[in-house]
Specification:
By secondary structure, the protein is mostly helical. It contains 7 helices and no strands. The two termini are 20 Å apart.
Length: 159
């Protein structure tokens, strides 16, 4: 019987990425986790709109115009807020001798670079990097796995 493994793959991949970045996995029914996945899916759809594509070329003009690109920006702010909350929790429980995940390793490097005025190891950079790893990694990896399954299904003789 036909089925679509898309949601399962997105959940599994994003949870693995979460364990590497945040040091923790989410329950598949966790509301925060499902909200993140929904925002990710919504942003993928919104990026296809002409407004969002034009925003990439004319951001200062389109900042003042309504359209789906505004929802994309609001969703990005929600992602950012989520990561900043997790970073703040990590800072409270941080032990430099025992890094748990990517965030702790980044915090260790921030501590090493504390005296350097030209360092790129800041909370803002940590937040952006974390978002990039989560968003880009989830989308590309789950899509690659989906196509891999499709190819295996279409050409079973290669297995």
């Amino acid at each position: 019987r036909p089925f679509n493994p898309g949601n399962f793959l997105v959940h599994a991949v994003s949870n693995i990425i979460c364990s590497v970045i945040f040091g923790d996995r989410f329950d598949y029914e966790d509301k925060k986790f499902l909200t993140l996945i929904d925002l990710l899916d919504e942003n993928n759809k919104l990026q296809l709109s002409i407004h969002s594509q034009l925003y990439n070329f004319f951001p200062t003009v389109l900042d003042y115009l309504p359209g789906p690109h505004q929802k994309l920006i609001k969703n990005a702010e929600k992602f950012d807020q989520f990561t900043l909350e997790i970073i703040a929790e990590h800072q409270k429980t941080w032990d430099p001798t025992c890094p748990r995940d990517f965030i702790d390793a980044f915090l260790n490097k921030m501590e090493q670079e504390k005296g350097n005025g030209h360092t790129d190891f800041t909370i803002d950079t940590l937040s952006r990097t974390t978002l990039d790893l989560f968003l880009a990694g989830t989308g590309t990896t789950s899509t690659t796995l989906r196509y891999g399954l499709l190819i295996l299904h279409k050409y079973p003789e290669i297995v």
